Amino acid sequence: MSITTDQPDSRPAAPPAAPAQQTFANRLTRWFEKHWLLAFNSFWGAFVITPWLAPIFMHIGWTWPGRAVYFIYNFFCHQLPERSWFLFGPQFSYSQAQIAAAWNTTVPAISNELIRRQFIGTAEIGWKVAWSDRMVSMYGSIFLFGLLYALLRQMDVRVPPMPWWLFLIFITPMAIDGTTHLINDVLRAQFRQTNEWAALLTANAFPANFYAGDHFGSLNSVLRLITGVLFGFGVVFFLWPMMEQEFSPRD
Fold first, then answer.
1. 99, 116 in Cβ contact below 8 A?
2. Burial bucket for residue 246 (CB in 10 Å: 0-12, 13-18, 19+)
3. Cβ-count burial 47-76 (b if 16+ within 10 Å, e if not)
4. What's the whole-model pTM score?
């Protein structure tokens, strides 16, 4: 005859499940897989529209909200005024000389980019958008092409991912344009201010003020707009179809 004694189970008890949290996480995941494009376009739309609110806020006297937008987007863009657009003024853009005059100073006094970027405008000349024209074209085109992609998706048009080599072709122009501007600014050179190389290549086919400066309609402005749009097109039609396959796999 054997005597057995029940021993308590020494194994640690399993933690209680959290079905409510798991259910919410699963629902959130399923929602994002189905609506990832809506979520991104909504977020990105707010991101690209907010810089335009800064000059509106300043114009109607909401100084603190306006300056808050300038401060936040200061981390995303250099905000140089000669490469930015202005609202509620007589001109859409201004040269460094015009900015210095509006600031009651001289061009040499604002030669430092860290100083010049602090200028946000005045009631007389208008208020600048909270990021530069390149950011407007680059980030704005991503938003607009994202809306186009959503429209094609709604029409059940499936866009295949862009080949990587074609993607490089679309983003390279902005890389070249941005890098040459960076070199020009760091070395305080003039080859991207005068653009004499472009005048030689085109046999001075355009007016002199088209080649020099950064004002709206100048060569630099046009190149920043075009290369930014090409970049945005390449990003959307290279990455969005891949995200479509990742988040919304087709059975």
1. yes
2. exposed
3. ebeebbbbbbbbbeeeeeebeebbeebeee
4. 0.84
Residue with tokens 């109607």: 60
Domain ranges of the chain: 33-131, 160-246
Per-position pLDDT tens, the chain of length 251: 445 555 555 565 555 555 555 677 777 777 777 778 999 999 999 999 999 999 999 999 999 999 999 999 999 999 999 999 999 999 999 999 999 999 999 999 998 989 999 999 999 999 999 999 999 999 999 999 999 999 999 898 989 999 999 999 999 999 999 999 999 988 888 899 999 999 999 999 999 999 999 999 999 999 999 999 999 999 999 999 998 888 765 54
- Residue positions counted in the chain: 251
Closest CA to 86 of 139, 124, 115, 118: 124
- Give burial (CB, 10 Å; 0-12/13-18/19+) of 133: buried
Rounded Cα distance, 23 and 111, in Å: 58
User: Tokens representing 101?
Assistant: 């005059």
